[in-house]
Design a protein that fits this description.
This protein is an alpha+beta fold. Among the domains are: 124 residues, Immunoglobulin-like (Sandwich), CATH 2.60.40; 206 residues, Glycosyltransferase. The chain has 16 helices and 14 strands. Strand 4 and strand 5 form a beta hairpin. Helix 2 packs antiparallel against helix 16. The protein is globular and about 80 Å long. It starts with 7 loop residues before the first helix and ends in a 5-residue tail after the last helix. The structure holds ligand G3I and ligand 9MR.
């Protein structure tokens, strides 16, 4: 949906039309019957030798021609593949009956990668897509560059940011200690400096807990796909130094995280925030006071885990950043020691602070303790960390509030893991992967997403499931990995367009992508196109914002509108698994 240029009135009218159109489409779909058939497909494309599928919605008519073709997008006479649709099957999350067009056997000469489209006998066509080894190169670079666009305290120059250039905002060199964070050495109102870091999402605040899973995923991508990232140039200010650009971007947030630790006791502040969410406006026009708020056990443990992993991953770059490894190691141990002596300091939002919590009342922290003990065991080898380890009962698909699987990933990755722990980690990963594969096989859309997965940030659930599968793939003999990678490809296809809304959920990519994201810079910069490379949270029926949704059907409750922060915001912990999964499929045949 492209917005026309023009004055505020025209934009208002266009927004009204878009909202009406979206509602109409959504409302129609929510009744299960769709006027005319639709074809949903990954709108970026496929690596040559990976599974390739599209979903065709069933219009209920009998006797339909069940054949389909793949043609050159600009020339329907150039048919490159013919096939037959699968039998219709229901998909509960969207209350639809659908058919699969499987063209996985289509192989194309490298370089002749399309664009192509799927075409039915009745003339219905899919959005165009490409096929090629480097098909994800551009969207991978954009998904990482989105972090650069969300830097706090940085002026973005035209040479690196193009039309999204902007002055710096939020230097965060004058940040106040909130009463909830006061200590003897840093009483209420003390001033500290806590610069750099990324804005968490569409808001301008910075949260340690959400940096936890985000930094884990990006550090693991850097480590696992080092060859790819050693040469992936993102055109950021640091691109000419001797470090991978992804590491430079990670360091921008790591530098900020370090400043969130109290040097006097090792505790870690839960977040850096304004008292309330600010009104939209560019960063350099924001002047509200910013605070560090309450030290929490979850923040200390997530911080300790990230610093311990960073010490291991950054080690091979230590020549460029001398002493960083030692600094991260000390920070990790001091944060863990604080958590060890303050094991149940849950984050409790002060009455005068109403921004994001990244906490639940009565939450348990066993998973955060497990993750931190695992990372510190792998970093230090000290037995005190293994002695305390209590194996989680339900290590499953990870999220900011459930990080046990992150510990399992690291334990499975390392050759320093004690055998019993490694066996547990491998079992946890394979059991989670088996559940995901079963969901994939049972799904009408052939994607491992079920109704309970449609929560705030559902697109990150899809991609974190794909990461579980990609870890499982490395634990089994080469001949047994097919289903894992196929199911992971399908989850990537889902966020890229093979979904009931027919939206490629990454800004700036695909034929239909979000234009009105809940992102203060994109709303305020006077540029129609949103900042590119951001993955939006995705559909979910929670209705936690003031948008007027026409449905509560899980997989289609979504609105491409500023008001929809519960389905159409962006966040650092949503782009991270996108980076990891795109990296895993980059350079793949
Ligand atoms: O896990 C439960 C699930 O079991 C249950 O079935 C489901 C429906 O009730 O709820 C699930 O929990 C939800 C949780 O997200 C899942 O991670 C909570 O209801 C929901 O309130 C929670 O929303 C969080 C949201 O902040 C509101 O607190 C999102 O995870 C989180 O990503 C989002 O983060 C915000 C920051 O606070 C501020 N910055 C923007 C960022 C993204 O919107
Ligand atoms: O912009 C805020 C977004 O980052 C958060 O995820 C969301 C939920 O915490 O809140 C948004 O801020 C809204 C606030 O909650 C209510 N007043 C309107 C604010 C902007 O939409």
């Amino acid at each position: 949906m492209k917005r026309c240029a023009g004055n505020a009135w025209q934009k208002w009218l266009q927004r009204l039309m878009v909202a009406t159109l979206t509602a109409a489409v959504t409302c129609t779909m929510s009744r299960g019957a769709v006027a005319g058939r639709q074809i949903h497909v990954n709108q970026v494309g496929f690596p040559p030798n990976q599974p390739k599928m599209a979903v065709v919605t069933h219009d209920g008519k009998a006797g339909q021609d069940m054949t389909f073709a793949v043609t050159a997008a600009g020339d329907d006479t150039r048919v490159v593949f013919r096939g037959t649709l699968s039998e219709p099957k229901e998909w509960i999350p969207s209350n639809q009956t659908v058919l699969i067009a499987d063209f996985s056997d289509l192989s194309v000469r490298e370089g002749s990668g399309g664009p192509y489209r799927v075409r039915l006998a009745d003339g219905t066509v899919s959005p165009p897509f490409a096929i090629g080894i480097d098909v994800y190169r551009d969207v991978l670079k954009a998904s990482i560059k989105a972090y650069y666009f969300n830097r706090a305290g940085a002026g973005l120059e035209n040479a690196f940011a193009g039309k999204w250039e902007r002055p710096a905002g939020h230097p965060d060199t004058i940040v106040y200690v909130h009463e909830s964070a006061a200590s003897a050495q840093r009483p209420t109102g003390s001033v500290l400096s806590s610069p750099k870091g990324w804005y968490d999402a569409g808001d301008y605040n910075k949260y340690i807990v959400n940096s936890g899973i985000t930094m884990f995923t990006l550090l693991k991508a850097l480590d696992r796909f080092a060859g790819l990232f050693d040469q992936l140039n993102l055109n950021i200010p640091e691109s000419q130094n001797h470090l991978p650009d992804l590491l430079d971007e990670i360091l921008w947030n790591l530098d900020w995280m370090e400043t969130m630790q109290d040097p006097f006791d090792g505790g870690v502040y839960h977040k850096l925030t304004t008292a309330d969410f600010t009104r939209p406006g560019m960063p350099h026009f924001q002047y509200q006071k910013r605070y560090v708020v309450q030290k929490s056990t979850a923040a200390a443990l997530d911080f300790a885990s990230v610093m311990a992993l960073a010490a291991r991953v950054v080690k091979k770059y230590d020549a460029v950043h001398p002493h960083a490894v030692a600094r991260y190691r000390q920070a990790a141990i001091r944060a863990f020691n604080w958590a060890d002596t303050h094991p149940d300091v849950l984050y409790e939002q002060p009455p005068d602070i109403v921004t994001g919590r990244y906490a639940f009342p009565g939450e348990t922290l066993a998973d955060e303790f497990f993750w931190a003990q695992s990372e510190l065991l792998l970093l230090t080898g000290e037995s005190r960390f293994i002695k305390k380890i209590r194996l989680p009962e339900n290590a499953d698909v990870p999220g900011w509030s459930n990080v046990a699987m992150l510990g399992a990933f690291s334990l499975a990755d390392s050759n320093r893991t004690p055998p019993a722990l490694k066996r547990w980690a491998q079992k946890a990963i394979l059991e989670s992967a088996a559940r995901i594969v079963a969901e994939h096989n049972d799904s009408g859309f052939r994607v491992a997403m079920t109704a309970p997965d449609f929560i705030w940030g559902s697109n990150s659930v899809a991609l974190n499931k794909a990461i579980v599968l990609l870890y499982a793939e490395r634990l089994v003999p080469p001949g047994k990995t097919g289903t894992y990678r196929a199911a992971a490809q399908s989850l990537l296809d889902y966020v890229m367009g093979r979904n009931p809304l027919g939206v490629c959920f990454v800004t700036g990519f695909g034929r239909l992508s979000p234009m009105h994201i809940h992102h203060r810079v994109s709303k305020s910069d006077g540029i129609d196109a949103p900042v590119p490379g951001f993955l939006v949270g995705g559909p979910q029926p929670g209705w936690q914002d003031s948008c007027q949704y026409p449905t509560k059907v899980p997989a289609i409750t979504y609105m491409d509108d500023w008001c929809s922060y519960s389905t159409n915001e962006v966040a650092i912990n949503w782009n991270a698994p996108l980076v990891y999964v795109l990296a895993a499929f980059s350079g793949i045949n």
